[in-house]
Specification:
Sirtuin_class_III, Rossmann fold, SIR2/SIRT2 'Small Domain', 225 residues, 2 domains, three-stranded antiparallel sheet, transferase, binds ligand BJW, Sirtuin, protein-succinyllysine desuccinylase activity
């Protein structure tokens, strides 16, 4: 049984019509990251942050998984492979393609989180800070998203999977945001074979053993086949 850890980023959903974060047309072109993706920004202007995420939730809800999401779901279903699928994406497209047990290290647009008591519940289409928490009734509703300065989710589980991996693959991520950006170094230091997938050859660092350059909808199905 081969143990594979796959890390995905915004590039895997780009061909489903969802914007990436950096580069031309990236999400932050319209919104400075400090204005929307930090706890401080939320404390300063919760309405702006909710508007940003309500719009992201609307777009993600209308998007459909692409061939890369489907190929990864097929890989997960194979009997001879144990796949740990870790995503930085909050869009839910891996699940829409049929993948189960996806590790959402940066949270999910589909969930709401009470900043007062930590309770989680399915996000309404349009969320506002004034929405009462169904558990404690406080009005401190926020998206269940990991912002800069917050600790990503499931780090222990991810570290365990990386410790046991035979293969590591990083797909459609710029590798600029930590701790996810450090997974490849951790894997490479253990002698794990590392595959990098990106549209842009320059975004795949020399630490990767195999460079798969091109759109994820082509390179990922070709790798999985
Ligand atoms: C294609 C393609 C196609 C396009 N096919 N490819 C200084 C040094 C080191 C670290 C820090 C530092 N100062 C601060 C930090 C920490 C900070 C950080 O990393 N900052 C950096 C910016 C420097 N990190 C944090 O604060 C994290 N927390 C933390 O570190 O806690 C401490 C701790 C950790 C662990 C244990 C104990 C303590 C939290 C990070 C939270 C990130 N949140 C965001 C926004 C919220 C989610 C949301 O709104 O959606 O998450 S930021 C944003 O970037 C989002 C993404 O998940 C994340 C990564 O972006 P991604 O996915 O890589 O997208 P892009 O756009 O950057 O790249 C897309 C790529 O796809 C490109 O390369 C394209 O070429 C490619 N592509 N189309 C294939 N068709």
């Amino acid at each position: 049984m081969q143990r594979i850890v796959v890390l995905t980023g915004a590039g895997v959903s780009a061909e489903s019509g969802l914007s990436t974060f950096r580069g031309g047309g990236g999400l932050w072109d319209d919104h400075r990251v400090e204005d929307v993706a930090t706890p401080e920004a939320f404390a300063r202007d919760p309405a702006l942050v909710h508007r940003f995420y309500n719009e992201r939730r609307r777009k993600a809800g209308a998007a459909r998984p692409n061939a890369a999401h489907h190929a990864l779901a097929e890989l997960a279903a194979r009997d001879d492979i144990h796949l740990t699928l870790v995503t930085q994406n909050v869009d839910g497209l891996h699940e829409a393609a049929g993948a189960r047990d996806v590790i959402h290290m940066h949270g999910a647009l589909a969930d709401a989180l009470c900043a007062a008591c930590g309770h989680r519940w399915p996000a309404p289409k349009v969320m506002a800070a004034e929405d009462p928490c169904p558990d404690c009734a406080m009005r401190a509703t926020r998206p269940d998203i990991v912002w800069f300065g917050e600790i990503p989710y499931h780090m222990e589980r991810i570290a365990e999977a990386l410790e046991r991996a035979d293969i590591f693959a990083s797909i459609g991520t710029s590798g600029r945001v930590y701790p996810a950006a450090g997974f490849v170094d951790h894997a490479a230091a253990r002698g794990v074979t590392c595959h990098g997938f990106n549209l842009d050859a320059d975004e795949i660092g020399p630490v990767f053993d195999h460079h798969h350059v091109g759109p994820a909808t082509q390179t990922v199905p070709a790798w999985v086949a």
